[in-house]
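Sat 14:20. Reprocessing the chain from the morning session after the first attempt stalled halfway. Input below, unchanged.
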Amino acid sequence: MITVYDAVGEKLVPRGTLGDITTAVWIDLIDPKEDEDKFIEKALGIEVPTRSEMREIEASNRFYTENGAYYMTSIILHNSEQGVPMTSVVTFILFRNNLVTVRYAEPRAFPIYIARAAKGDVDCVTGPGVMIGLLEMLIEREADLIERVQDEVERMAPLVFGQTTASRRPQNRRLDVLLKSVGKEGDITSRAQESAMSLHRLSLYFANAARERKDDTRVLARIEAANHDILSLMESMRFLSARTSFLLDATLGMISTEQNQIIKLFSVMAVMLMPPTLVASIYGMNFKNMPELEQPWGYPMALFLMFFAALIPYLYFKRKGWL
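Finished this time. Tokens:
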């Protein structure tokens, strides 16, 4: 699908028909078909990368200049509202005053930016202005995701270590559930780190492109500010990644400790029951000469011996702190 946007005054307005796209500020290609790619290529005289080309990991295939057009491809997060963020690639093409975006996902940053631009709340009269606006929105959305992950990690940390406060009790401290939750947040953090690193490389190349194109200095200043935001976000994510790794190791350690406690309990119980079993085995033998069996106190004596034989190991283990 091709959506074309024009700058009308200080607002970004979508066209009803494609028309002459060379005068458009922003051309947004969402899951484009082959004929749509060819239409853009013919109209603007540039190459539109295919989906497989966009996914190549070499820097030379993600950031390059061709026929006066600057190509920048970045990994972005989307679907963060559903709890399982996914990654996708978006290509930004700066050609003259046009911005062309090629994407195969629907990140919330795009419709949010479009809504703001439609109200005239952001600078959207040039291609570079639209691109930096989208980049800022992507960074803002990623920062919101990291804040949510931080809150979730803060909630899980006391549960892992069994800490309690007056207002919080260690409810549902199932370590297997906590292990899955910590692993999930760690996976989200690693995806966010990958996206942030990609956006950082994009911002550096975008800044160089803006200097070469002699774009508005205000755009360049916003690019540098966005780059600083990404760096601070990456620093937060490094700390968060280290903390989730620590919690993951701690949870695994807690699970191992609980398993050892269970095995120790069974071992101690087995040792405690061995002396009573010995007494019961002796009096269960079919010998004729066992005088106490004929006595009225024989049965109570056997019960007392079994109880006493179990009590002594119990008291010993209790004193040692093994129970």
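The chain has two domains: 2-256, 259-320.
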